[in-house]
Design goal:
Blueprint lengths: L2 E12 L5 E12 L3 E5 L6 H8 L7 E6 L2 E2 L5 H11 E4 L11 H11 L10 H13 L15 H13 L5 E5 L7 H18 L2 E6 L2 H4 L4 E6 L2 E7 L12
Parallel strand pairs: 3-8, 3-9, 6-7, 7-8
Antiparallel strand pairs: 1-2, 1-4, 4-5, 9-10
Length: 243
């Protein structure tokens, strides 16, 4: 299967007079439909790496290719179009607009894309929003405002928003960091179901090894380098083999 993500000898520097290297020659490949995590402590470089994968920043050296496209060669406009078409994002904080309904929070990205408000959203787009909400178990709160639903429901709605454009790759940044144990387990189960039924490639960035050990592959970043790239059973001492 062709690689979905190829990171080749990537470095990232910040600063001018005094330069700080956040990444120092990172390389790895991700095949289509993988379900993996990137772990590391604060300052390890994992968030910088996520920004590069999400086309929110560019490497100082090296290259990042997504779906066979060298995204570093794209213009700002092309990068935005690629991101909107192929990538979905889930963050630790849901970033829902509280004054809008749950349904509208899923549809707002389509308004930005050119539809003239709620009335201009095509019927098939509305149908997809309803199907996603039902799939995530929050269809019953579709007409409630975002501020009226629970924290766990808000994160599920945020996942739904990320799925609206049927992304090839879903990037999740500490997606359970703001949830209790029960809702964290629910979000993880939803990720697994999305992966299984939709074939989405998942990259989950976390500092929590307990979350990472539930994924199929773990890439550990330490001091700007990939220190381990292993199957999930390796890190907790159960054996396994490095990639």
């Amino acid at each position: 299967m062709a690689d979905t993500i190829t990171v080749s000898n990537v470095t990232k520097e910040y600063g001018t007079a005094v330069k700080t290297k956040a990444l120092r020659g990172v390389s790895f490949r991700v095949a289509g439909k993988e379900f993996l995590s990137i772990i590391g402590q604060s300052g390890s470089g994992k968030s910088t790496l996520l920004n590069l994968l999400g086309l929110l920043d560019r490497p100082t050296e090296g290259s990042v290719s997504l779906l066979g496209t060298d995204v570093g060669a794209l213009s700002k406009k092309e990068r935005a179009a690629f991101r909107n078409r192929h990538l979905g994002f889930v963050f630790q904080f849901h970033h829902l607009l509280p004054e809008f309904s749950v349904r509208e929070n899923l549809l707002i990205p389509t308004w930005i894309g050119g539809s003239k408000g709620a009335a201009g959203v095509p019927a098939e787009t509305r149908k997809r929003a309803e199907e996603i909400l039902d799939f995530l178990g929050v269809g019953q709160v579709a007409d409630k405002s975002a501020e009226q639903i629970s924290g766990g429901q808000k994160q599920r709605v945020a996942i739904g928003r990320a799925l609206m454009n049927s992304p090839d790759i879903l990037l999740a940044d500490e997606p359970t960091g703001n949830l209790d144990t029960e809702n964290s387990a629910l979000v993880y189960d939803l990720f697994r179901r999305i992966h299984r039924e939709m074939g989405t490639t998942f990259v989950i960035v976390t500092h929590d090894r307990a979350i990472a050990q539930q994924t199929d592959r773990i890439i550990e970043v330490r001091d700007g380098l990939v220190s381990q790239d292993v199957q999930n059973e390796y890190l907790d001492g159960r054996g396994g083999s490095s990639k």
